[in-house]
Amino acid sequence: MIMAEKQQTRAEVFLDGKYLGPTTDPESIVTEVKAKRRSGQLPDQVNVAYHKHTGEVKIVTDTGRVRRPLIVVEGGKSKLTQEHVDKIKRKEIMWDDLIKNGLIEYLDSEEEENSYIALRPENITQEHTHVELDPSIILGFSASFIPYAEFDRGDRVNYGAKMVGQSIGLFTTNFLQRTDTKSNVMVYPQQPLVQTHAHKIINYKEHPNGMNVVIALGCYEGYNIEDAVVINQSSLQRGLLWSYLYRSYEAEQKRYLGGQEDIIGVPEAGVRGYAGEDAYKHLPQDGIIDPEEKVVSEDVLIGRMSPLRFLGTMDQFITGVENIRETSVKLRYGDNGIVDRVFLSETTDGTKLIKVLVRDQKVPEIGDKLASRHGQKGIIGLIVPEEDMPFTEDGIVPDIMFNPHGIPSRMTMGKLLEIIAGKVAALSGNIVYSPIFSPTPENEIRSLLAKHGFRDDGREPMYDARTGRKLESEVLIGSCFYQKLDHLVSNKIHARSRGPVTLLTKQPTEGRSKEGGLRLGEMEKDCLIAHGAALVLKERFDSDRSTVPICSECGLVAHNDKMKNKNVCPICGNSKIIEVEMSYAFKLMLDELRSMLIYPKLMMKEE
Questions:
Q1: d(Cα 477, Cα 461) in Å, to the nearest integer?
Q2: Is 168 within the bounds of a domain?
Q3: Fewest C-beta atoms under 10 Å: which of 14, 455, 535, 553?
Q4: Could you tell me if residue 501 is inside a domain?
Q5: Does the residue 253 lie in any domain?
Q6: Bridge partners, residue 462, by sequence
C-alpha cells in the first residue's frame, strides 16, 4: 500500500530545464527550497514549483524571467504589518530588508501557478499564500496610466495601453543633443488633470505625452461619424497638439582598397549621376547644408562623390571624373522641413562622419489620429472656426466634439468619469487621483461639481453658434486628456502616376519612400469587376507589359542576335519566331523554370 502511494507521488526534478533526478516526496522539496529562500540560505532569485499534472518539480534560476513582488501570507495573516510600513516611512528599514527577512518575495510565472494570491489584506483566508502589495500592480506599465480603468471594458484598457506607446510627447529632455533616426516632440505638452499613482512614481511631469482639452459629447453635422472628432480651429492656432518631427541623415567619408576614398563636397559636372547645377545650388563650398535652410523632397543635404565600385585591370585604370560617381545624401521622397542641426564627428575607424537633422512642424490636420486614454481613438474629421462651434452659457467653446455614439457599444464609462473629474480638477485647481481599484468615488466628484455651481452630471445647456438657438438637449462637457498619435497624414499620404520600376521584374517599385505604385490585388480586382469596370483592369494589370519573341516550333523564348540583327531561337535556329505580348514577370518565370531544367513549352495559335 505504501509502495503504491509512493509510486503515485513520484516526480522528476529539473533545474533550469536540466534533469536532476526523480523524487518520491515533491511537496517537501518545494517547501524546503521556499523556507531556505525566505531565511536567506538560498538566493532570493530562486523560484520553485511542483506541477502535479505533469509530475515535475521545476527549480528556476534563469535570467530574463518576469518576476513580481508579493507579500508572504502565513497562517491566514500577512507577514508585512503596519509596524513594518511605519518603519519604512521613517527610513529605519529598506525594501531589501523586507526581502531578506522573507516578508516579501518575487514570484515568476512557474511559482505563481502554485500560489493563491489575495487582492487585498481583508480578503485573506487560511488558504491564501500571498497578498498583493496593491491591486493596481496587476496592470502593466502603460495600462497603469489609465484613470478609472476598472470602469472600462478590458479590451479598451488594452487599446489605451497600446496607444500610450504611440503617443507624441517629450520622450527625453535632451532631444536637442541626440541624433535619433526619427523622433517626435510635442511643442506644448501638459500633465493630465486626472492622474494615477504611476504618474507620481515615474516623475511623469518631466515627460508628458498629451494635452488637456475641453471636450463636448455631441454630433456636429455628421463630421464626427465613425469615431472621427471635430476640432476647434482657434485651438489649433493657439498651439493645440502641435509637434515636431526630427529625422536624421548621415554620410561617412569611407576609405576603399587601393587608397581611394569618398570626397565630401559639391559634386563636379561630368561625374556619373550628376544631377545638374540646380540640385546643388543651396550647398556651401564644403558640400554640407547650413542649419535653418529650408529643404523639400529629394533636396541634397550632403554632397558626396565616390570611386566606382568595379575597377578593371591596372592597364584599364581610368583617372579623373569618369572614375567617380555621385553618391550624395538626399532628403527622403515626400518629406519637407528645415535643417535643424549639423554634427561633424569621426567614426571609430577615424573616418569623417556627418549627421544632419531635419525638423518638420506638424500642425494637426484632417486625417491625423488622436486618442484618449480609454482606447477611444479617432481621426480629425473637420476643423471648424471657433465662431461656428457650439458654446455654453459661460462662453466656453469646446476644443473637441466627440461623437456620443462611441460610448454605448464600447462601454468606456471611465472616459465619462474622467470628463467630469477633469472638470472638477480644472475648477478646483487640484489634480484628481483615480488609480485602478481605488479611484476618487463618483459621488464625491458629483458633490464637488454641485459645490462649484454646476449640474452634478457634468451636462450644461449649449447654444448653436450659427443660429444662436439653444440646443434641445443639454450636453456633457468637461476636460479630458488627449494624445496625438504618430500616425500623421503628412507621413502617410501617397499617390503616383508614373515612376521608377524594379530592375528584375520591370514592375513598379514598392513603398512610399521609393515612389512606389499602389498595388491592385485579387480583392481590388473583384471589386472592379463587381462595379462593371472590367476595362479598368486592362490598364491596371499591364504595368510590366512587354513583347517577347517566341519560337513557334519549340515554344521557347528566342533571343536577339546583335550581329545578324534578328531574333534567333536557341534550339531551332532560323525557325518562325512570333512576337507575343505578355507580362515580363511571366517571362521571368519561364527563365527560372529553364534554370531548374524544366521545359516550359508555349503552344502558339494563330489569332
A1: 10
A2: yes
A3: 535
A4: no
A5: yes
A6: 392
Encode 577-596 in three state secondary structure: EEEEEEEHHHHHHHHHHHHC
Residues 404 and 260 in one domain: no
Name the nearest CA neighbour of 419 among 189, 150, 146, 194. Answer: 194
Instruction: Reduce the DSSP state of residue 359 to 3 states and report it.
Output: strand
Are the beta carbons of 479 and 215 closer than 8 angstroms? yes
Check whether residue 78 and residue 170 sit in a common domain: no
Cβ 396 vs Cβ 477: under 8 Å: yes
Same domain, 467 and 558: no
Report pTM.
Answer: 0.83
Cβ atoms of residues 463 and 390 within 8 Å: yes
Eight-class DSSP state of 294? E
| Total of domains in the chain | 4
User: How far, CA to CA in Å, does 82 sit from each of 38, 121, 389, 486?
Assistant: 20, 11, 55, 46
Is the CB of residue 135 less than 8 Å from the CB of residue 149?
A: no
Q: Which domain holds residue 186?
A: 145-242+366-484
Question: CATH code at 575?
Answer: 3.90.1800.10
CA distance 79 to 75: 9
Which pLDDT score, from 0 to 100, does residue 311 have? 54
Report which DSSP code applies to 428: H
Q: Tell me, what CATH number does 341's domain have?
A: 2.40.50.150
**What are the DSSP calls for 499-562, one per residue?**
--B-TTT-PBP-SGGGTPPPP--HHHHHHHHHTT-HHHHHHHT-TTEEEEEEETTT-PBPEEET
* Residue 492: inside a domain: no
Q: Is 363 exposed, middle or buried (0-12, 13-18, 19+ CB in 10 A)?
A: middle
Q: Mean pLDDT for each 10-residue chunk of the chain (607 residues)?
A: 52 92 90 90 92 92 91 91 90 89 91 91 91 88 93 95 94 93 95 94 92 96 93 96 96 88 91 89 93 93 87 51 85 93 93 95 96 96 96 96 95 96 96 92 95 94 94 95 96 90 90 87 92 87 89 88 85 84 93 94 81
> Do 269 and 130 lie in a common domain?
no
Cα gap 446→443, rounded to integer Å? 5
Q: What is the CATH number of the domain that holds 95?
A: 3.90.1070.20
The x, y and z cell numbers of residue 497, run together, are 502616376
Q: Is the dihedral of CA 83, 85, 89, 90 positive or negative?
A: positive
* The three three-digit cell numbers of residue 389, written as one number: 462651434
Grid cell listed for 406: 462611441
User: Which residues, in sequence order, are CB contacts of 126 under 8 Å at separation 6+?
Assistant: 75, 76
The three cell numbers locating residue 352: 569623417
- Indicate the helix (H) or strand (E) that contains 13: strand 11-15
Question: How do beta strands 459-460 and 475-484 pair?
Answer: antiparallel
Question: Which residues are known catalytic residues?
Answer: 227
Report the alpha-carbon distance of residue 303 to residue 329 in Å, rounded.
Answer: 7
- State the Cα–Cα distance between residues 570 and 554, nearest whole angstrom: 10
382 and 357 share a domain?
no
- The neighbouring-strand residues paired with 352 are 346
Closest by Cα among 579, 515, 588, 507 to 540: 507
Residues 6 or more apart whose CB falls under 8 angstroms from that of 550 comprise 556, 557, 558, 577, 578, 579, 580, 602, 604
Compute the distance between CA of residue 51 and CA of residue 69 in angstroms, rounded to an integer: 22
